[in-house]
Amino acid sequence: MRNFEARNQHFDALVNEPDLMWLGQNTNHFKPHPSVVKAMLDSINAEEFHAYAPPAGLEELRSLILQDLGLKAENASVLVTDGAVEALYTTCRDLCEPGVNFVTTDPGWKWPMAFAKASGATTIEIPIYKPENGYKLTVAQLESAVNEKTRIIYLVDPNNPLGTCHTEQEIKAFTEIARRHKAYFLHDCTYRHFADGHSLAAQFYPERTITIYSFSKWLGLAGMRIGALVAHPDVVERLAGAPPNNLGSNIVSQRAAIAGLKIRDEWFPEINRRQRRNQAEIVRAALQVPGLKVVNYPSQANLIVMECIEAGITPEALCQAYRQEGIMIRQGSYHTTAFGHRFVKVSTTVPEEWADAFCRLLPAMVEKARVLKQVTNLY
Length: 379
Ligand SMILES: Cc1ncc(COP(=O)(O)O)c(C=O)c1O
Fold this sequence. Notes:
Strand content: 15-25%
Helix content: 25-40%
Radius of gyration: 20 Å
CATH class of the largest domain: Alpha Beta
Bound molecules: pyridoxal-5'-phosphate
């Protein structure tokens, strides 16, 4: 069977498994705010879906996104996309070409690397799985990886999977490097709402920062495919010229996103408190199993990395053991070939019962992972 067919069947089985506990994709499974659901139902009942939405997104949504980021319309414009991933695709495909470099971290999110490569760029991954650097990219590392060939610096911040987040000082220093080499700074802020504090590169380098925004994680709309890119109007003018979807993103999703932004201040703090509570329980459970270790706590994203290498088991075996109990967690190799054999990633925006089930089963799953004979392919 071809790889894409096998991958599809894997995810098809997951979405068709009733009661699956989704602790692997950082999606948000808490109950949504009623006004978000109502906005979707109202849109469907009004049959808004017959028409195409405006190509750059509903104006109300565009201005609410800017407001959420605290950026000013003079030097920031919004292009609504089919999820953050489409924003990343458009950016990487449009700005990369043969002869240029795309610089990112390892681990990080791999798909934009595939997009940059598809446009002919050379990709450079800077290893950041280093306790001595707090599992973060350093200014010195970036300085030595960037040169006149660098077209894009791609930073996932907070990082998926590490949950580390950069300080304002670090972000400022990164943007100074980018500016000196006229590189675009692709700041993937998909997880920013979960951080205790987050600084936007756009405030230091508005002319060539592209901020990536997602509604999948904080608002829980992953299946609705809605996100955005935010950049200087000149940059958006270029990127809006030939996007993969020039007919407007899903209008039902846009109505949900608008409703979500309106209730964010009231709804989200409790969501974040609950996912941090889940993190704490997972750390407590991991500490009780010899060989398990949590890499960065508290994580600044809705996920936590648990090292299992010293427990003498593979991440894949642990994932499979859990899968047999109806729980999905993610193997590290999804994020990184160099360090993926060391850890699994557990997502925390889930009902407390799911997190508690993960914790309760942990000692038994580690033992089961030791004796699993055959581990099926994971994606
Ligand atoms: C770093 C990062 N960027 C983008 C995405 C995709 O976001 P969306 O669902 O909005 O396309 C993900 C999804 O896991 C991610 O981890």
